[in-house]
Amino acid sequence: xxxxxxxxxxxxxxxxxESVDSPKKREDAFxxxxxxxxxxxxxxxxxxxxxxxxxxxHYMYKTGHEGDAPYVGFSPRKAKISLYFAPGDLEREExxxxxxxxxxxxxxxxxxxxxxxxxxxxRKLIKQSIAFLKAQYPND
Length: 140
Prior knowledge:
Elements: H1 13-18, H2 23-40, E1 44-47, E2 51-54, E3 57-60, E4 66-69, E5 72-76, E6 81-84, H3 90-96, E7 103-104, E8 108-111, H4 119-136
Antiparallel strand pairs: 1-2, 2-5, 3-4, 5-6, 6-8, 7-8
Helix pairs in contact: 2-4, 3-4
């Protein structure tokens, strides 16, 4: 049976951000914390050792695989800052066209620093991701 690795923890979000080595990444993490908290309306929680997530939903795939995940989140990693949005949301791609300097993965958007992106588009991405996931998983 699959055991979900990334789960909500009791780790302190502020302590985690303060432990980030790079002063610039730490500063950006606090900026992102403010933006995600304000826009999502959810309290920040740690998911696993390094993801700061907002809200949560329960998913179940056709394969039977299920688990819980935050609606949105971010992680100030050493190389880049990872931003987590809903996978499979086609509107995300449109919004990313005006987002600024970034690269993408399946559910992640990677940025070097907050100064590289359009914060208004970030706000739209957060709102859109939450709306998309609430529509996909309405029982939460």
